[in-house]
Amino acid sequence: MRRTDRLFELIQILRDGRLHRGSDMAERLGVSLRTIYRDMDTLVASGVPVEGERGLGYMMTAPITLPPLNLTLTELEALHLGLAVVSKAADDELKSAAASLSSKVDAVLPEDRAAPASGWGFAVYPFAEAARGFVHMAPLRAAIRSRRKVNITYTAPDRDETTRTLRPLQMEYWGRVWTLTSWCELRNDFRVFRVDRIQTLDVTFDTFEEESGKTLADYLDRQDSQ
Asked: Which residues pair with 53 in a beta bridge?
């Protein structure tokens, strides 16, 4: 598993707000305890709201979802797409400005973060990686609004490419990486996918209705009860 993927998985583990021991996370991800300690130091230094220490465990102290801002999700998507382009410019001043603006945006995610993030998105998720997901953002938003099923091919870390039919429910922002929460018909359960790991996307003409046990509210209730 690549380091960026491992950091994302650690955030997913910590998302429930509970205390997690480093040894348990190391076993779950198949890495050494020393690696987990280094990764946790990276997340903390990047501004992720995590508290804890070696030997005791770690927990997330605030959600890392997008709080209310004077920006729509479409505007935020456009902003980060622009940052992705500027970050590749040859002009060092523009690169610096892109990094500074990214830090300012990330610093308000969430509002009760103790200190501004020092380039969380730049430090953990390279633009080249995250930018691959931007092409799918508009059709996914449309599918969520119109409740249309989508067919995707998806490549998870260290796994073969799979084909899924999904009921798209919600997109979330994780510091330049966007995720799609959905009901997966292959697994007959909720699944969260990184948008930048979606290889192909097809919005079908098949619509879906609110069905008990398969809604976003059901997913959030399950998260709260874990």
From this structure: 57
Distances (CA, A) of 210 to 141, 148, 186, 202: 17, 12, 18, 21
What is the spatial distance between Cα 103 and Cα 46, in angstroms, rounded to a whole number?
Answer: 10
- The predicted model scores a pTM of 0.54
By CB atoms closer than 10 A (0-12, 13-18, 19+), residue 48 is buried
Distances (CA, A) of 109 to 20, 49, 82, 142, 147: 22, 9, 19, 25, 28
pLDDT in tens, 137-195: 889 988 998 999 999 999 987 778 999 999 999 987 765 677 899 999 999 999 999 88
Read off the amino acid at residue 163.
Answer: T
